[in-house]
Design goal:
The protein is an alpha+beta fold. Helices cover 23% and strands 33% of the residues. It is built from 3 helices and 5 strands, in the order ββαββαβα.
């Protein structure tokens, strides 16, 4: 039994700034501090979840889809590839 609709699409949470999504950025451990510093420059608070693997750290945090341009811009100005962000439906990530 599932709480998700039979169509296979997960419900979404929407606000004034768009859909609430879960963002992921994978970086080398040596770049983690630089990434966190870049995220601290955003105009909204970020409470990242860190997942450490061999030679990689996944930084995940929720944000509204309307902020993706701002986030990509901050990453680009900080020397990161703005396409390094992967986006996932927030509720689907917890299904």
């Amino acid at each position: 039994m599932s709480i998700w609709p039979a169509s296979g699409t997960a419900p979404a949470l929407f606000g004034i700034e768009g859909e609430l999504v879960l963002l992921h950025v994978d970086v080398e451990p040596k770049l983690l501090e630089d990434l966190l510093e870049a995220l601290s420059r955003l105009e909204f608070p970020v409470n990242p979840d860190l997942h450490h693997k061999a030679n990689q750290v996944r930084v995940s945090f929720p944000a509204y889809s309307g902020r993706l341009g701002e986030i990509r811009g901050v990453l680009a100005r900080s020397g990161f590839d703005p396409s390094c962000i992967s986006v996932e439906h927030l509720l689907a990530a917890h299904a």
